[in-house]
Amino acid sequence: MGEAPVSAATGPLEAQRGWQFAVASGILGWILDAYYFFILVFLVDVLAVNFRVSKAAIVWSITVTLATRPLGAVILGSLGDRYGRRRPLIACVLFFSLVSALTPFAPNYLAFLILRALYGIGMGGYWGIGASLVIESSPARWRGLFSGVLQAGYPLGYLMAALAIPLIDAHFNWNWLFLDGLFIAALIAVLTWIAPESHAWEKLGPVNASEMLRSLRRNPPKAARLAVLFVYLVVLMTVVTCLSHGTQDLYPDFLKTIHKFSSALVSKLAVFYNVGAVIGSLIIGHLSEKIGRRYSILIALVLCLVSMPQWAFGASLFALAAGAFLMQFGVQGVFGVIPAHLNELSPPSVRSLFPGVVYQLGVLLSAPAVGVEYVLRNRIGYAWALTAFELCVIAAIFLLCLFGPERRGRDLAS
Question: At what angle do helices 19-42 and 143-171 cross, to 10 degrees?
């Protein structure tokens, strides 16, 4: 399952006017999506008081959001393949932004939980449409770079949330943290409206789902190959997401519990290593255009391994900060390749649906990762729990990518 021959894949994409608007709207939407997700993480205490529930009930709403993301990928991804990328993307951005804006005004906890479930549908639906629009609209020689820029939107959304908390809290009510994104949503809608439709989608035309299913039934070998590819990519995205959540979610608690760092210091370290995440996503994503998607992922994994002694066992603040920076550089470097890699491997007629469902199913299946690390913590210690879990994950990704398929440079309009 090696790398396919590289195609020039330039031509119409190079000459398509306004492609910058399409790329910008897809990237900005993912940043906004991540912002709305992480805002809640910073407001657990406030929301618990507001809705008169325990903190555990607010944390549970995060699980509900994650659980509805695959449903959004199916619904909105299908619309993206049927009606083009632009109009469903506008509808998706406005939907999850309006739902988020209503969140602080929910009359009770049940209404709040329903709104977070609806937000999960919007969040899950956005990635498939946004990634297909960005990758299909990007000139082929910059596809890897914009793949990295798109995926860097996730840590950028986290940074926006971290910076917005003290800024808005000092001058406005916390409700504005859910309302300020409406201005960005309006900008994204305008950019998407004036952007050209994806040339690849226009050339391939809308998908007739029933006809596609009949075609697969008439061609069992093709259906079997597609099923194998789908399972392979879901497994890949599951372990890649385990790499991300396994290095991020418990790390602040690790620093507080083991090293007795204050919350303020941990927040500053989180900002620092998320800067590393953004840089890694850009550099490794762009590198994948030169040496291939799989080999770039393997290089990013090596950086994760190099960082691990200081990341988990560093004896000083400087060592831990350097290890965390390099770890997230490698982790998000892996993720920076993913949008281009999934879109190039996906069947052309379902390029909005297929990558989005694969991505969100990986997120869902990786949900127990943090729980596994937490159980290991009580048996072998915090540092060794994080290390052992991530070593297994890195080994799995390494093997999947070393022997997996690749179609770098594929003409997305064919």
Answer: 40
- What is the residue-averaged pLDDT of the chain? 82
- The verdict on 224 and 306 lying in the same domain is yes
Q: Which residues contact 335 (CB under 8 A, 6 or more apart)?
A: 151, 154, 240, 244, 281
Which residue has tokens 């994104």?
181
Q: Which residues of 330-356 are buried (b: 16+ CB within 10 A; e: fewer)?
A: bbbbbbbbbbbbbbbbbbbbbbbbbbb
- How far is Cα 227 from Cα 58, in angstroms, rounded to an integer? 37
Domain hosting residue 370, numbered range: 216-407
Given a cut of 50, is residue 15 above it in pLDDT? no
Residues 362 and 259 in one domain: yes
Q: What CATH code is carried by the domain that includes residue 141?
A: 1.20.1250.20
23 and 168 part of one domain = yes
Does this model's pTM top 0.90? My answer is: no
Are residues 166 and 307 both part of a single domain?
A: no
When mean pLDDT is compared across 113-122, 183-192, 241-250, 316-325, the lowest value belongs to 241-250
Q: In total, how many domains does the chain have?
A: 2
Alpha carbons 206 and 204: distance in angstroms, whole number: 7
Pairwise CA distance, residues 224 & 302, whole Å? 33
